[in-house]
């Protein structure tokens, strides 16, 4: 394992330990978990714009030797699935004031600067100052949402929060197998690198499928298992259509089974989130 991998693994382990500690000490673990999911998806959406489609920077963790872009994605997951959402949870749960938040933003900026010096993180057009400015907005949203989650939500805001809770799970389960097992590839012909193409297309795919699950959760009529089967069939038809148009190539026999069943299973297991949001987390 290259030395760069230890830096990213160290950040990941530290974030997991801090997240566990924070959830353990939160007054409402459920509310803290909801906020973690929401802030993860907000980070994912920002990263989709600036990193995937904007090519703002490149991570060099050295965790995946067979594909440079997927290796960069592993670094992106360290940041957007663990480090940044965990920082947001700590700020919200422990009610940090802005002096402490400013110190944390500076600390994150120093880490980013050190990673650049170590040549395990490459800035293209992005600047560390942009990260600092973005974190001010990001942490402000975390504090507001954590307070708002105490009260019941309904209407479009309920749908939005439900989407933000479900989408990071859908997105992570969608892209991780592709990066680790090369089980499928998308070919929208947007970028020169096939892995970049696949990542970009997958980022839109999981958003669409997450919206579909939210819409089905909001339906009052229909049996749960009928909806479960409906989601699986919809994904199967979509998969066949993408294969037919040569937008999707499947490389592993288990791929269609996994991608048809896991969205339906996410719907089945996460249905209580909708009820909990409606009555206040």
Automatic annotation (TrEMBL):
UniProt keyword Transmembrane helix, yes or no: yes
Organismal lineage: Bacteria, Bacillati, Bacillota, Bacilli, Bacillales
Protein name per Swiss-Prot or TrEMBL: Uncharacterized protein
Source species of the chain: Paenibacillus terricola
Keyword annotations from UniProtKB, A to Z: Membrane, Transmembrane, Transmembrane helix
Regions crossing the membrane: 6-26, 33-54, 74-94, 101-121, 127-146, 158-182, 202-219, 226-244, 256-273
